[in-house]
Structure formats: C-alpha cells, structure tokens
Amino acid sequence: MVQLTNFVYAITAASIIGAVTAHPGSHDGASAAELARRSNFIASSKRSLAGCASKMKARGFEEKAIARRAALAESIRAKRSIQGGRQYLKARDLATVLATDHASDLEGVTLNTDYSTLFSGNVSCVLQPEVTQGPYYVDGELVRQDIRETQGGVDLYADVQIVDVATCEPVPNLYLDWWHANATGVYSGIVASGNGDSSDATNIDNSFLRGVQPTDEDGVAQFLTVFPGHYTSRATHVHILGHLNPTVLANNTISGGTVSHVGQVFFDQELISTVETTSPYSTNTQELTANADDQILSEEAADMDPFMEYVLLGDSVSDGILAWISIGIDTSASYSVSSAATWTEHGGVANSNSGAGGMGGGSAPSGTGAPGGGMTAPTGAPPS
C-alpha cells in the first residue's frame, strides 16, 4: 500500500457546470428557469472572483503549489520505484474545454525541465455551480485517504483544494466526500437496476471507492483511489460533497454539520481513452459516453472547465496519475441532500425512499440519523 505524506496543494482554474442528476435516465435537459439561474450564477461568480487571481498569487499560493506538487510527485515515484517520468506531462489548455483535446501544449519537455514549468498554471479559481448529489450517494462513509480497498485499476492520487469565493482564502476543516464508479462502472453500497448486477444483494455492504477527508489549513483534501470507470449515458466523473462543522464519531465517520457544496469533476478525453485500454477497464461492456456527448457537460461547456489537471507519474498510465483541482465555493450556502443508503460497521442500510433498493444486515450507527436522513443540511436545495 502506498502511503502519501507530502500533500500537494494545487490551485488551478476549475468549475462544474450545472446538472440535474448523474445516472441513466436521470439527466433530462434543464428547464428555461434553471438555465437562466445558472447563467446568472456564472455571471455573478465571474465578477466576484475577478480579483482572486492577483490576491492568491501575492499570498504565495503559486510558489507553494509548485513546490508541493513537485514533492508529492517525487515521493510517489520513489515509493513506486518509477524511473524517468517527468517528460510524460499532460496539461489542460485552460482557454477551452471541449474545443480541444486538452493534450499538453508543452514542447521539448525532458528530465531537466524545471518543475516551475511542469506544475505552474493559472492560480485563479472559479466558483463551482452546485449540482445534485446523484442517486448513489451513501452517507456514513469512513474518514480515510486510501479508498481503493481491493479494487483494480490505475492508481489516482487526487488533490482537491477548496477556496472561499468571498475571501479568496482556503477553507480548512471542510470534510470532503468523494465517490465514483469502479473500473467496470459499478458503485459500491447500492443495489439498483443499472448499477452492475442488480441481483447481487451483497453490494449494499460494500464501501470501495468512497471516503471522506478533512481539508487542512491550506484547504486541501487528498485521496488515493483508482481512476473511475464509465457507465452508460455519462462521461467519466467523480462526485464530491463538502460538509462544514460535522461531528467526527468514534467509529471514524461524520454526522451533522452543513452541506456547503455538491459537485462533480471530470477528466480529459485523451486520458480516459488511454486508461480504457488497460485492464480491468477494457473488460467494461457498458457504452462509453464521450465528454462531448455528455448532456451535463455540454449544457455550458463554452463557459466552464471542470477538468482536473494531471501528470503521468511514469512511462504510462499504469504507473499512476497525479491529478489536482481547486474549487471555489460559497461557504455561507446550505443545501439539503438525501442519501440512497447509509454505510455502517455491520454493512449497508438502504433508504427505502431512494429508489436504489437493497437492504444489508447493518443498522445506522449511533449519531448518524436515519438511513435517508444522515448528512443533511436544514435549508435550500442545490440548483439542478
């Protein structure tokens, strides 16, 4: 097991476009009112963030990010005994989203290329429009960094920095939920049609590729996971959800607090295509939806760029990927979310109102609330 020590603190331009939900049959086009609300949201967020870039640079964010990204990359490569490596840079073109393939525009990168070139970038941060959590959200997940368990796939070292859009300052002590499908397009903890073998009731008790991490003083949470797999009708993505002021329970889960952010992050199509040629991704028989064909992405792709920056740690994706993103949020916001299930030390418990189905042998741990009521905020609902 690879243990991560030197956290990377990444600041890049990033945002999430509006969405309805995230699974088959649940992402119809947005209404005119919803689209108008999103447009106003984007316009106001751009204005409020106009001064953030200069403030963040003046406070030394860029220098700190470069140094820590480099330290983490070298630490991982050393522990994985990876030789070479630095020339295999992949970088986003921040000027566009789907109009380009997001391949590196750097020429002549070698082992001697300075890290300030490899890891520097726009230090601005774009407020991330809220999206619903999707039908496969499970509350009660463990606070842990390594969420792979026994899942196969390409190791992904993910760094997410959360910034307060009102102050341009990092947000410490925010507990970030992170979850996604495995290499063959299946979510743990959910028994439902469209999520793998719906006759396999044991999946309700699984917890792979789900976890929670608190942000540190620099607003950074980090996860060691595997690159997400695809499933029918959606481009490859990861769900995130931020909790402010929750209580950490004795069983290493969280309860209560306020849900201040709900979103998704995405990956370059070229990277997805490369990963999909490797095992076990290549055994996935579900239809692969390209970024350009994803309804959620396509609605406002001209204005938003919700992709993670990344570098390959070695000669191929099989050596692992280091990816990072910075997200601006409104810390005064409060959203109400409902879970499809709750994970407990004895297994999963489905929320009977979620439509996800399945019931494990567990019962909700003390302090986490009812299966469908854990981790809820008292007011509001995120725009869809």
Automatic annotation (TrEMBL):
Domain Intradiol ring-cleavage dioxygenases: 138-235
Origin superkingdom: Eukaryota
Entry keyword annotation includes Lipid metabolism: no
Membrane-traversing stretches: none
Sample GO molecular function, one term: ferric iron binding
Record's keyword annotation contains Oxidoreductase: yes
Pfam families: Dioxygenase_C (PF00775)
Key words, A-Z: Dioxygenase, Oxidoreductase, Signal
Record's signal peptide: 1-22
Region (Disordered): 352-384
InterPro entries in the cross-refs: Intradiol_dOase_C, Intradiol_dOase_core
Residue ranges with Gly residues bias: 355-375
Protein name: Extracellular dioxygenase-like protein
Protein species of origin: Morchella conica CCBAS932
The organism's taxonomic lineage, starting at the top: Eukaryota, Fungi, Dikarya, Ascomycota, Pezizomycotina
